[in-house]
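Lab notebook, entry 584. We have the chain sequence and a SMILES string for adenosine-5'-triphosphate, and the next step in the workflow is to get a structural model of the bound complex before anyone spends time on docking refinements. Request logged below.

Task: model protein plus adenosine-5'-triphosphate, output structure tokens.
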Amino acid sequence: MKELQHLNKFFLKYKGKLLLGILITIIAQIFALVTPKLIGNSLTAVDKYNRGIITDLELVKSELWQNIAIIIGAAALASFFTFLMRRTIIYISRYVEYDLKNEVYQQYQNLSVNFYKKNRTGDLMNRISEDVGKVRMYAGPAIMYSIRTITLFACLVPLMFISAPRVAIYTLIPLPILSFLIYKLSRAIQKRSAIVQKFLSKLSTFTQESFSGVSVIKAYGIEPQVKETFNEMVVEGKTKNMDLVKVNAWFFPMMILLIGASNILVIYIGGQQYINGEIELGVLAEFIMYVNMLTWPVATIGWVTSIIQQAEVSQERINEFLKVVPEIKNNTIEVTPIQGNIEFKDVSFTYDDTNITALKNISFTLNSGETLAIVGKTGSGKSTILDLISRMYDTDNGIIEIDNIPIKKLNLNSLRNAISIVPQDAFLFSETIRENIKFGKEDATDEEVIAAAKFASVHKNIVGFKKGYDTILGERGITLSGGQKQRVSIARAIIKNPNILLLDDCLSAVDTETEEEILNNIERITKNKTTIIVSHRISSAKNADKIIVLEDGKIIQNGTYDLLIEQDGYFKELYLKQLSEKDL
Ligand SMILES: Nc1ncnc2c1ncn2[C@@H]1O[C@H](COP(=O)(O)OP(=O)(O)OP(=O)(O)O)[C@@H](O)[C@H]1O
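Result returned:
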């Protein structure tokens, strides 16, 4: 229960509702207890009349009518309070679920990119949905059934012992056995359900991938193999489900058997006592009803135990993520306006998961309003420089300063607000094109959206679509071509009007003509913005004030465009190569 203590703060938050729920549960149980007692009394009255102990029929009739009226009233009140009980306690569990989900989601938002690299998306999703769901079962049904069982026992057992102690002992004997067996059975059911659940996610991943990759499957003509694999999986699924069904099938027969055993004991022992004149006939009926009332709550002891165990495991998984301290911390709450002067002082950076040293002793200065082009072979560390500027990662080797302040001392939100980044792999949300562009500025007007799209040379394409800016992009923007995606992503960055613009090889999928058009636009609007353009193409570096060439994490050349095309080295080689390709 150590991990579940995390929920205490929520219980404290809803303590008023919880106490009310407990009170309602107790009231509901007390009303439910009225019925057996009165049915017993009614039977005793009829029995006494039959045996001639009571001779006044009218008296018996009036007692019966009175009992019927009370039973109906008590049953109605018991149902009403049971309804209130569920409403109050299950509602609390939904509130706790809501709060916990928000807490986990907030934590996910705070965690750095590195965390997401180390943990699989499926696992993150599972902890916020499946695990929180299991914890909810503890915060709701487990608590509700526990209170119900405790109240029922507290009221019923003394009542039974007062009415007929010997029958009471025999009635209660099979119940712990029932509870223990249900516990064992619930564990077995949960184990098998977990296997079925795991299998189902495997099956849905497979089907989802085969739908997404349908063109590859068709192009390679491997439909029969895919179908074969699917069939095998279905058979596997059937076997796993049958295992579950077999165990599940034991549940009700076992309950019926043990209820039956209790009933037989009541009738046998109670019957003997009745024959001997030790108890009334009504007590027998009363006890049979008690047995049936007790069976489900007793069965829930086993069920609730396994719910709590599962919730503990799930909460442990949730706590594991909640305890992670975000690697990238905001070190000041003070807003720090950013102008855009960037300086790298002897910066080195190693990715801790791969141990790859992506940057080695990098130093450069970029004044606000200047444009820097970074050129270099793939894997030379270009994107890493951009990631360090936007503080996706922190480095302890060397210093990065923005406006002469170490980057870690800046307000993280101010920094990120001042930066627009167009990543290499443009990710678009499954929303309309308008929404995707407005992502950079939520309150942007339609005119601003259109201006940004024009800037990124994608406006003409968008208006060519039937629904224009309202075109919904499929999963990961699949309805757009690679170049169109890149340009929508540029429009999204531009609309934010940032002081620092970081373009990570984001024109690779557009033709050279459009590239030039966009670069000219960029040059026009970035006069007062610090811009870094990462590219494999020499043409992208043409308008830059400064250029650095990276190789294996080190700066091997730097200077202006005119200087570098004269200087022997990688840049000149690339220039000549791309020049000859253009001539072809
Ligand atoms: N998130 C990461 N975790 C671990 N290693 C990484 C990560 N990102 C990049 N690397 C490694 O760091 C090195 C530099 O990568 P980086 O992405 O900065 O290169 P790049 O010059 O931008 O390459 P490209 O032109 O192909 O985009 C590479 O060896 C790469 O494998």
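Notes for the group: The two ends are 73 Å apart (CA to CA). Worth checking against the assay data. The chain has a mean pLDDT of 87.
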